[in-house]
Amino acid sequence: MLSNFEHIEMLEQLNKDEQEKLASAWIDFYRIIKTLRGPDGCPWDRKQTSKSLAPNLIEESYELVEAIDNDDLENIREEIGDIFLVAGMIAHINAESNKFSLADVISEVSEKLVRRHPHVFGDVKEESPDEVLELWNHIKKNVEKDGSEFESINDSIPRSLPPLERAFKIQKKVAKVGFDWNNLQSVKDKVSEELAELDVCIHNLSNAKQKTSQEESPSNSLHTSNLQAAVEEEIGDVLFSIINLARHLKVEPAVALHKTNQKFADRFRYIEEQMHQEQRSMNTSEFSRMDELWEEAKIRMKDL
Predict the structure, then answer these.
(1) Which of 106, 107, 129, 293 is the most exposed place for a label (fewest CB within 10 A)?
(2) Are the C-beta atoms of 72 and 57 separated by less than 8 Å?
(3) Considering only CA atoms, which of 93, 92, 95, 68 is closest in space to residue 80?
(4) 3-state SS track over 79-138
(5) Which of 206, 198, 186, 201 is nearest to 239 (CA)?
(6) Is residue 51 part of a domain?
(7) Does one domain contain both 110 and 78?
């Protein structure tokens, strides 16, 4: 347990009031979770599993990122609480089957923090953030694991991550060992190359679909299916190259896309509101009017 480690005296001290408030808050929080999952608790909460709650954890994380991006302190506090709630619920679900408890989770991460910070809790001296990160990775690979088994630098990136975030992390990892373009123009050229390859695939697919419509056969259908798969692959390559361009421009692609999603949703909401006021239907026959309103929304929202 952390309370027994030899550098316990190096931890920042809490006054009595801080300790009591923190302990009381955590205990009340956990008792609420236990009650919600208990026999007389909430039917929805009792039905949940670790897997069913996983999407909630991703959603709450994005909502926290949005609150941080907007400097919205009230929502930052609320979303941190929501993340604690989902994580605490998942921990308790595992405690119910005697796998591990919330206390185990907190103790384990505390021990890991101490172990991976010997420059704080030990005699190791590291000055720069890069040196600290290198030390962290060394401990993770050679101390916590024996270091003898081959491991790709990308093995530590969860496959369950959303694809955009996983692509960004993969690119950052391989760049650290020198596998990266050394100038921005090369990155832009790669995007253009991938777009050109996609264009060829789209052209081939269009021709194949036309041929299949004129003469249906198993071979034509198979050819069309293969070309559809090729288009999918090329779109993946284009997206990967765009994410790489964002990385070189020091832009977080997930944050950029999140902002664009919200921008689109806000503009489309304006269209819906205006169409409702004009008593017009939202359908393809009204596209011209909706397009006019889209341009109007762009101007209006740019001034906000």
Answers:
(1) 129
(2) no
(3) 68
(4) HHHHHHHHHHHHHHHHHHCCCCCHHHHHHHHHHHHHHCCHHHHCCCCCCCHHHHHHHHHH
(5) 198
(6) yes
(7) yes
Per residue in 127-185, pLDDT tens?
Answer: 677 777 776 666 666 666 665 667 788 888 888 788 999 999 999 999 999 999 999 99
3-state secondary structure of 180: coil
In a domain, 120, yes or no: no
Tell me which of 87, 115, 143 is where a domain ends.
Answer: 115
Distance CA 49, CA 32 (A): 17
Whether residue 43 contacts residue 55, with contact meaning beta carbons closer than 8 Å, is answered with no
Type of residue found at 49: T
Distance CA(231)–CA(278), nearest Å, equals 41
More confident residue, 115 or 245: 245
Q: Is residue 21 part of a domain?
A: yes
What lies within 8 Å, CB to CB, of 167 at 6+ separation is 239, 240, 243, 253
Instruction: Using a cut of 0.90, tell me whether the model's pTM lies above it.
Output: no
Which helix (DSSP H) or strand (DSSP E) does residue 185 occupy? helix 184-214
Structure tokens at 94: 């595992």
Counting every residue, how long is the chain? Answer: 304
For 24, the enclosing helix (H) or strand (E) is helix 16-37
**Domain limits for position 271:** 255-302
